[in-house]
Batch of 2 targets.
Target 1
Amino acid sequence: MFRNQYDTDVTTWSPTGRLFQVEYAMEAVKQGSAAIGLRSRSHVVLASVNKAQSELSSHQRKIFKVDDHIGVAIAGLTADGRVLSRYMRSESINHSFTYESPLPVGRLVVRLADKAQVCTQRSWKRPYGVGLLVGGLDESGAHLYYNCPSGNYFEYQAFAIGSRSQAAKTYLERRFESFNESSREDLIKDAILAIRETLQGETLKSSLCTVSVLGVDEPFHFLDQESIQKVIDTFEKVPEEEEDGGDGEAEAEAASAAPAEQGGAGDQDVAPMEM
Amino acid sequence: MTKQHANWSPYDNNGGTCVAIAGSDYCVIAADTRMSTGYSILTRDYSKIHKLADKAVLSSSGFQADVKALQKVLKSRHLVYQHQHNKQMSCPAMAQLLSNTLYFKRFFPYYAFNVLGGLDEQGKGCVFTYDAVGSYEKVGYSAQGSGSTLIMPFLDNQLKSPSPLLLPAQDAITPLSEPEAVDLVKTVFASATERDIYTGDKLEIMILKADGIRTEVMDLRKD
């Protein structure tokens, strides 16, 4: 109830010490379609759900290559994500140019977080409406970070963001302890299985997801549809043994199971620009 | 009162020679590996050839510190291009980029004498030759560096290409086969090494074809 009084601009605190505009920005992340990241000791896998505005259009790109050793998956306002990816690429190139060595992932996420923080403390700006899963490999090993619109960032073994991500997170929570020692193939399989959790009943097809890998001796690249379909084929025949992936965790926007082909049409509250 | 001149120069010439020849489906880029300063040799094993993109290879003689800086700038710009266009730069595109980059420093130039070789969009060999400030031309063959004055007249004799100003436009590529072109390159370098003190030690040859790049190394006189 009190939210409405103190949420007009980002430079207004609420009496309870919250910045509502920043929190609203985090809501935008939850509206976007799911993005998932997991890492082992030597590899990082980023995967996302391909959601298209309509049957006529192509789906939006949610995973971007930043450098050979860093990739980023986004959820929320994809336009903001695209702009931030360009910034990350620029930072990476400038670092390589000056130091003749790849930009450590931790340094990149700090710069990204600082950039996001600026937008939470200027009256003429708004926070970025996108969450970023930054996966990368540097001298200290494989890393996966999550950058919030708030300017916070956290390191994860595995994480999922976007709509119905709770289903994926539940799956990952059960399995994450083994990820560090996972093989590359198992990691990819777990990523695709986590994606499947977010689809909630829809049949998993390679056209519905995008998967990217990077690792030691393996620069960032996307997996082609055939490879993804092969992994799907290994488990799609197995009957579902897990508990219902949906859970009682109802998302705020009540994204009910719209018919598979409808895509975004079922979510009435989702603005067209958010994917 | 006569004008005072600097007693220090920001430039140095590290010598060496670079050659490139364009063929119907290949391009040969070659350079010696000697790096000198004044009358001394700094090293006998320095590569002046640098791959910029899958189909574009740059060879530069002159001041190697400027050459290194130029290569770094081009490499970064190429990465930006790849992010934006999702593909590698073509040789003609790289040629224009190199020209622009050089002219950008028109009033404090890169002391680099460049030859860019590669395959164009149709898969035919192409060679671009430059001066220090970016003036460039697509040619069938070229030589730059300390031995260029010895090599160029001989290449003209063997490979004379039609003027790019002719109409209708004629192909600049040589009718030589790839082994013949490589042999010609070895011959001209052996000759240049005899009379140019800054050329010698080893010859590095890169042969660019549609399926990839091959490298050959040949010994030259070390005196």
Target 2
Amino acid sequence: MLPTELCCVMGYLSFITTKSKQFQAIRRSPLSILITTKSATDLEKPRSNSIAMAMAIKLSLLLLVFSCSLIPTFSLFEDQVGFMDWHQRYIGKVKDAVFHTQKAGRKRVVVSTEENVIASLDLRRGEIFWRHVLGANDVVDKIDIALGKYVITLSSEGSILRAWNLPDGQMVWESSLSGSKSSKAFLTIPANLKLDLDSPIFVYGGTCLYAISSIDGEILWKKDFIPEGIDVHQLILSEGSNVIHATGVSDSSEFNTYEIDVKNGAVLNHAKTSFPRGIFGEILQISSDKSVALDSSQSTLVLISIINKQIHLQETHVSNLIHGVSSNTIILPSKLSGIFSLSTDTFIAFIKLTDEGKLHVMEKFDKKVVVSDALPLSENEQAFALVEHGDSNIHLSVRLVHDMSSNHLKETVKMDHERGFVEKIFINNYVRTDRSHGFRALIVMEDHSLLLLQQGEIVWSRDDGLASIIDVTTSELPVEKIGVSVAKVEDSLFEWLKGHMLKLKGTLMLATPDEITAIQKIRLQSSQKSKMTRDHNGFRRLLIVLTKSGKLFALHSGDGHIVWSTLLQSLRQSPQCPNPTALKLHPWQIPHHHALDHNPSVLVVGRCGLSLSSPSTLTIIDAYTGNAVRNVGPTHSTVQVLSLPFSDSEEQQLHLLIDDEKRAHLYPRSREAVEIFEKESQNVYWYSVEADVGILKGYGVKNRCDGDEFCFEARNLWSVVFPSESEKIISTVTRKGNEVVHTQAKVIADEDVMYKYISKNILFVATVSPKASGPIGSTTPDESVLVVHLVDTVTGRILHRMTHLGSQGPVHAVLSENWVVYHYFNLRAHRYEMSVIEIYDQSRAENKDVLKLIVGKHNLTTPVSSYSRPEVSTKSQSYFFTHSVKAISVTSTAKGITSKHLLIGTIGDQVLALDKRFVDPRRSLNPTQAEKEEGLLPLTDTLPIIPQSYVTHAFKVEGLRGIETIPAKLESTTLVFTYGVDLFFTRLAPSRTYDSLTEDFNYALLLLTIVALVVAIFVTWVLSERKDLQEKWR
Amino acid sequence: MDKGKGVMGSRKWAIEFTDNSSTPSSRDIPDPPGFTRASHDQDDSTLSRQKKDAESNWKSQKAWEVAQAPFKNLLMMGFMMWMAGSTVHLFSIGITFSALWQPLSALQGVGKVFEPYKDAKVDLNAPKLLFIALNLGGMLLGVWKLNTLGLLPTHASDWVSSLPPAHEVEYSGGGIALH
């Protein structure tokens, strides 16, 4: 009882006492002050006990005031790291892995991933030794290990070659290979080829073949294939020879083979054979002089052999080889010598090339088989791994290439079906103590997780699907059940007191180093943090994230552990749903009042296929268990998902899904929902942004579709056409649907009021001149124009339009309340800039008469319609900003009272909190006294970057893509979830935690003080009684 | 009784153990020899009147003093308010509210304060009025301070801030096609 009341009173008081004028709006409201003082005087009623209480309160208040004034807004003390934040490092879906086990002490694997990460992982635990995230455009093509000490990566379509030091991941050298044309990229590192003490690396990229020194990355020679018009498909370097064979196809009609001298790149021999049908996909090398390819119709296998410097082609019909074969034949890229695997719609076949040059089908498997590359065991022994799927387990078998019939090793591993199928396998061997070969397999699953299997067990697993989050939403945790056993309470009470005594010791600097570590441990491992129930302050929540693999994860906001995860069946590849992609995640059911027995649920929208008109699937998932409640689809296509502000009697949110023919489909599909929607349908609008043609279009509901009562036809209400020769849409931003605004008035200096134009239907559109749509520096300032528009999406009215001459994108923006802040590049100043536009409602500006306001004669609470065309006025200002930006977001709180901070995801993958007061268009060079009092900062040309205000402090959120803010129940606090390749979560209080005691508030000290005061009161009372008696007897 | 009271001065009560000689019944008994009642009576009454005058003078003087006491208070309060400054914090709020509370409680107890000086001959109305006026002045000072602290709802902003934003009739959503 005491702490909560205290919290309340002290919160308010400290909030008043804070001199900072960012609370102007609240400070000015007399009500809160009156409440405060009332509660303060209530407490000081002259009863001896409450005097003591009041004293204690005053004391703790003083403490609080001091602590408040000492701690700057965001900076943390060293021991506070990890206290309310967590950081998780991921790498993404592994696409290539190279084992490194030369030294027994270092068991590592180097991987490259779809998220363009290269990382060295510990094979024992799966931890990241080192990791580098290449940029989003720097796709890793190939990785390999050279000289046993460098990791070589080829990226950006073969144009950048880098060498990294294997033990610590430091970059050793980098070579940029300027190819003339984009092409495939290959990397070949000969094992023991020496050229003047140098081991060359052969790289093909950009239609050029390079020999590169592995010591310093110097280009030794270069051979351009552009004049020949040949696209090289493979490089063959025979063991012990000094010749590279480059096999290529010219315009898909001729096979060409070049013999190139490894020393100087001279062409020694050139052979060609015409092959008019062309080939499909890659050429796969199966032995030193033989390769296999598919023709363009995917029906004929072409065996390419180079005999006596001549190309011989041998064609075999796939149907002759395998009977009853269906279409979609592909050669799998597993490199097994003498054997290749062919995948069709229904099965996978292993085909062996006999010594006589005949193809021979060895074995057929059904489709769910994954094959690894061959692993050399000894001089002429090679092994490969093969994974088959069982019901709830997988069968891993290792076979020797020359002896396919028997399994060298067969293991069955139990596998969680939420991980889906195996997608890739990499194997590695080790020598056991009995000199036999042991194998470990690194497998990549359908949900992008990475597992290491060894001796029939999963040694470790990494949920790397979390590196590719598409969408985030949150859900409340279940309410705590009453009826906790007494023993537990007592125990925890004792623990609680003990902890606080320790803390007290810590504050009084009496603690020993051991105790200090114990204190730190208690702080970090607070069991409260990761409890699975709702908390009073709303800090504990479920973060529900949708990943690219179609897997849904629920993370606990306390420590980031995975509560549940589910691989959505509707987003798995199936005949009904080829190429599924996850699109969007929406809260579906948020039980508050009358549906409390329901669990909250989320809606996942996915699409089957790549085009906009592909059918979509909808799944409703229970947020507490991860079970699918309902599955719809594949059904109509979906290009837009609108979460309407209405809910039905079960508190299911009404959703409109717009298909590619501009029809709106209402969900949930129930009579009640239709009734609710039809009542409101006159006021429901939607708009589409067609960025490629530069058109904004607004729609309203027309009538029902034929034959489907949940489908509504749209009518086009308005269009805004941007002239394609001068404006190209590069960015649009709208307000977050769940944002809460506390007040419509902005109190400025001298108690004046400005009325904000608060509308959820504002769209910020940024356009640039077509020439300026390229990267920065690709155009001159004169040709580059950035125009920003604020569009009302109900009527299509352009509320404001502003032109920035000599500026260009990329534009990142955030729209909140009545303002928009956007970030762009100013070509004239050669600097990034940030601008702010604030919109004010002129039609309400006359409401300034106090008497009228008191008696309620004003139009401030009457509902507004966009059709009333309210007069607006805007204020704007621009500032330089040092960083380039990846994402901008803004803090959001439960009631919208707390002042706001911009959260800027910087290019360094950190999140910077910038007070909104810095981007206030009313800033001026010399603010008046009243303005200063209001908290207006003097105008500066550059926005300051205060190192302490990095929210992510020492961490980096590699590959940062989004910043999500979630209001906590406590008004002062907002939860921030940042995602990219890494995840980062923290709690922010933009105006400090004025409504609660800080976490490390010393309750023990408070308790002690109160007890001491009560004792003092009793003692003095007894003493004074005694003295009184003595006086009387005198 | 009157006599007794007069002699007793400001005491609240007195007991005479001797028979009261001023009552008519006591006149039946002859005075002792050498005792002349009339002269003594006269002496006594003049003395008591003088005393009474002094008493009422003293009372009215005291009453005026009491009435003027809030003035000092006012000055002190003003000084403290000046010290507290014009920003809202713990001390300025405390001082302001005590400045409001003190005159209020004093006004409530205005009868009690002047009770001791009640006298038929003393006119307490003027000191009371002064007392009330000064206390009202103190209260005004408090209110003025409240206003300078910006805690009085005298501006439009005070009434507008608590109003929620107006409800929007239309709803619109959408954006770039999902991909």
